[in-house]
Write a structure and sequence with these properties.
This protein is 46% helix and 22% strand. The protein is an alpha+beta fold and 110 residues long. The relative contact order is 0.18.
Length: 110
């Protein structure tokens, strides 16, 4: 339960900190799991940041030291693109990958 609480706490874009007792008390393996899951959940939250139930497609490709995210929709994704750019650093830090974000209009699923 503590892990789930930490994942929920850190998915908002806040970096985990050893100053936070609930995170500091986790074993190292659990800290890695919490950080990885929180960073993915943070990107998912960014993709749905408008909460308007947009029809969005997501493609992720990992190659070498880069993760390429292609996000598309038939609707404008201005807010989502901005949120992704704000939150991507956490993902990069946790996974040690350069995240390349590409937001396209007109490629959503119908």
């Amino acid at each position: 339960i503590r892990d789930r609480g930490n994942i929920a706490r850190y998915h908002s874009g806040k970096f985990p900190s050893h100053k936070d007792a609930s995170y500091a008390n986790l074993i190292d393996e659990d800290k890695v799991i919490v950080s990885k899951l929180a960073s993915i959940l943070s990107l998912a939250e960014a993709i749905d940041s408008s909460h308007r139930e947009k029809n969005i497609s997501i493609k992720v490709e990992v190659s070498g030291d880069a993760a390429r995210f292609t996000v598309g929709s038939d609707e404008a994704l201005v807010l989502e693109a901005w949120e992704l750019e704000k939150r991507v650093k956490f993902f990069e830090e946790v996974y040690g990958l350069e995240a390349q974000i590409k937001v396209e209009k007109g490629i959503g699923k119908k």
